[in-house]
């Protein structure tokens, strides 16, 4: 969409408003004295005129809901090179537990990241299966330090790190990055959980932590997109229990919350990034489709929240930020030195199959 917009100057979204929405908008416009009263004629100089009503702020009526709804605003708000994290983003993050930045990685950046991830023996060698207890598994590779290859430039670039610092309100450091690979037909599901449900157990005293979930592939309901309970970060930490191979949130509590919070399916185009709070409840279904679903997740912790226990992720380690153009300029695709890949057997919140079983 962004490419078409830049090349042709427009995009068309057919049926953006469905039948019911349109009927409501028509009622709001047609039976509206205020609109009629404020309408004025715009003459065309050929004896004809169109009537126009114009207002400066969207307001809270049905027409305002159109001007403020995410399907319109988020499309307009796609990442642009002059992107700066704003106060409004922080407000949204605090209220809903997430913000979406569409097109955070552009086409060229994404192509480089894909080369770095796909043609990488080290990532393949360090990947392990995370069983979902229902016979499926996702493959995951996880490293603790960003390093200096293309993937490290993503984890260290200003458009990501500065945004996390704005949203959490202070200096952050890289807690880990992971590549979550849900392969066609085999990729497993993820239980409802909060990331802080795990990280709490690592001696992180505050939930001043977050994840940036970047779509490498197109992510849809069909191939197991993320589902989130909007605003659930405000419920605090929920008890987490090991079920199958994964640790999940207490489902009795999640089911209660589902009755009062909005469940959102987070469909994403490649390059889109969801910045979400460590207490936001999320889950995802198995990939039953023929389409690969890879996601690249960078996690950050606040410097002031230095873990009190030495564990399998780093304690405070200053993050060396790089400018955004470092992703495009980086020519290191496979020198993974310094990344410190995780040995999954050291993480108490997941269960992995021993190597012998894996090869059977
Ligand atoms: O990739 C997913 O669907 C979820 C991943 C996730 O939530 C996690 O690894 O904590």
UniProtKB/TrEMBL annotation:
Transmembrane segments: none annotated. Gene3D superfamilies: q2cbj1_9rhob like domain. Its cofactor is Fe cation. This is Phytanoyl-CoA dioxygenase. It comes from Mytilus coruscus (Sea mussel).
């Amino acid at each position: 969409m962004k490419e078409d917009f830049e090349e042709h100057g427009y995009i068309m979204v057919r049926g953006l408003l469905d039948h019911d929405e349109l009927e409501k908008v028509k009622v709001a416009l047609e039976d509206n004295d205020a609109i009629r009263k404020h309408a004025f004629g715009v003459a065309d100089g050929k004896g004809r005129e169109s009537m126009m009503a114009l207002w400066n702020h969207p307001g809270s009526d049905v027409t305002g809901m159109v001007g403020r709804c995410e399907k319109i605003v988020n499309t307009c708000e796609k990442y642009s090179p002059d992107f700066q994290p704003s106060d409004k983003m922080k407000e949204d993050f605090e209220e809903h537990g997430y913000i979406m930045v569409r097109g955070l990685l552009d086409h060229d950046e994404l192509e480089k990241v894909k080369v770095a991830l796909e043609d990488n023996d080290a990532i393949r060698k360090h990947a392990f299966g995370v069983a979902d207890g229902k016979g499926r598994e996702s493959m995951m590779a996880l490293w603790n330090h960003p390093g200096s290859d293309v993937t490290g430039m993503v984890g260290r670039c200003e458009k990501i790190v500065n945004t996390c610092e704005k949203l959490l309100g202070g200096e952050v450091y890289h807690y880990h990055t992971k590549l979550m690979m849900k392969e066609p037909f085999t990729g497993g599901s993820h239980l409802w959980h909060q990331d802080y449900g795990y990280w709490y157990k690592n001696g992180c005293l505050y939930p001043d932590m977050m994840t940036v979930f970047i779509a490498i592939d197109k992510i849809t309901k069909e191939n197991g997109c993320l589902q989130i309970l909007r605003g659930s970060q405000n419920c605090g930490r929920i008890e987490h229990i090991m079920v199958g191979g994964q640790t999940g949130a207490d489902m009795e509590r999640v089911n209660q919350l589902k009755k009062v919070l909005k469940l959102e399916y987070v469909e994403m185009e490649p390059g889109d990034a969801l910045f979400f709070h460590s207490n936001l409840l999320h889950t995802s279904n198995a990939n039953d489709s023929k389409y690969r679903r890879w996601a690249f997740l960078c996690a950050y912790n606040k410097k002031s929240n230095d873990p009190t226990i030495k564990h399998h992720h780093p304690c405070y380690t200053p993050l060396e930020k790089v400018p955004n153009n470092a992703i495009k300029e980086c020519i290191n695709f496979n020198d993974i030195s310094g990344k410190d890949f995780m040995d999954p057997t050291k993480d108490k919140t997941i269960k992995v199959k021993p190597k012998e079983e894996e090869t059977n």
